[in-house]
Amino acid sequence: MGADGYEGIKELKGRQHIYTIAQDEETSTIYGMPKAIVEHGMEDEVLPLGKISEGIRRKVGVQ
Q1: What CA–CA distance (Å, rounded) separates 5 from 39?
Q2: Is 61 helix (H, G, I), strand (E, B) or coil?
Q3: What pTM does this model have?
Q4: What's 11-35 look like in SS3?
């Protein structure tokens, strides 16, 4: 419920290029981890919960 997800994303992005999708505030029960990622500019895309799987499919080229 805090910023531990941000720490993991920060470490991964420091080692290799990763594409990060953060859940939006409106559909988050608790916005702690996504908020920390967005506040630090580590997200590549912010999507509502119901659109995250679509975003992943789009990114990897699977329809």
Answers
A1: 12
A2: coil
A3: 0.86
A4: HHHHHCCCCCEEECCCCCCCCHHHH
Whole-angstrom distance, CA of residue 21 vs CA of residue 42: 9
Q: How far is CA 21 from its chain centroid? A: 3
Model pLDDT, residue 3? 78
Q: Taking phi first (over 0 means left), then psi (-120 to 50 degrees means alpha), and beta for anything else, what does residue 61 get?
A: left
**CB-count burial class (<10 Å; 0-12, 13-18, 19+) for 22:** buried
Count the neighbouring beta carbons within 10 Å of the beta carbon of residue 9: 20
The kind and range of the H/E element at 36 are helix 32-39
Asked whether 42 and 9 are in contact (CB, 8 A), the reply is yes
